[in-house]
Specification:
It comes from Subtercola boreus. Keywords: Hydrolase, Magnesium. This is Haloacid dehalogenase. Pfam families: Hydrolase. α1 packs across α4 and α3 packs across α4. This protein folds into two domains: 155 residues, 3-Layer(aba) Sandwich (Rossmann fold); 69 residues. The protein is α/β, with parallel strands linked by helices and 241 residues long. Helices cover 43% and strands 11% of the residues. Bound molecules: magnesium ion (MG). Magnesium ion binds next to loops.
């Protein structure tokens, strides 16, 4: 019998686990307001936007925020690409938007595992992580705009595994969405942690909470849990792919 795998690499999403997803929301709103202004319309109705955003957060799959915003506020879902492109121009992670539990978490992992970023982000996120002192901890830079693959496509995950030199069973992915983080990572055989903030639902269902190996509200204490609880025993179907 082969030795049981142990966790050798920790991959981390950025929006939600590391930086506040409100940075993304602010960029989407700024872009949508600007496109509406060009059409002679007033700014996006904030309460209506929040209601749509909360619906997307609750769903965790199948509903695109930018498609919904384009349909609701720009008159047609076909303007999703336009909204997407302008959002990219405004998307940044300003100083002060790093969650306070990230640095203690990364320092608790340092020297024990490879640490990787695995995120759908612009290249500028690298400078944000440098500014906030996290770059020295990061061994693998799986930034979609740099690598050329986006979650949930398996290519970004397999790229990160290869870059870290570990098998899927020796890696854990930490993210705050089921559709682009937990499900694609689990399908490849990685362990999964679901961080319940930002784009995660305010009130996750029992069925949603059953999907990741670990679900947490903060990163406090997570390093110890990764080493003691993962990789979790899986059913045959969970590692089928
Ligand atoms: Mg995220």
């Amino acid at each position: 019998m082969a030795a049981a795998p142990s966790i050798q690499a920790v991959f981390c999403d950025v929006g939600g686990p590391i930086y506040d997803d409100e940075n993304f929301v602010a960029a989407v709103l700024r872009a949508a307001d600007e496109l509406r202004a060009a059409d002679g319309l007033g700014p996006v109705d904030r309460p209506r936007f929040r209601s749509i955003y909360d619906g997307v957060r609750a769903e965790q799959g199948g509903v695109s925020l930018r498609a919904s915003i384009a349909r609701e506020f720009l008159g047609s879902e076909s303007r999703k690409r336009e909204l997407h492109d302008l959002t990219r121009d405004y998307w940044a992670h300003p100083a002060g938007t790093l969650y306070a539990d990230v640095m203690p978490f990364f320092s608790a992992l340092a020297g024990r595992v490879k640490i990787g970023i695995l995120a759908n982000q612009e290249e500028s996120v690298i400078r944000s992580l440098e500014r906030d002192g996290l770059a020295p901890y990061i061994d693998v830079w799986g930034v979609s705009a740099v690598v050329g693959f986006e979650k949930p496509s398996p290519e970004l995950f397999t790229w990160a595994l290869r870059a870290a030199g570990v098998a899927a069973s020796e890696a854990v992915h930490i993210g705050n969405r089921l559709d682009t983080d937990v499900r694609p990572a689990a399908a490849l055989g990685l362990s999964t942690v679901w961080v319940l903030r930002g784009e995660a639902p305010t009130s996750p269902t029992a069925a949603q909470l059953a999907e990741p190996d670990i679900a947490v509200w903060t990163l406090d204490g997570l390093a110890d849990r990764i080493f003691t609880e993962l990789p979790a025993a899986r059913t045959a179907s969970a590692v089928a792919s």
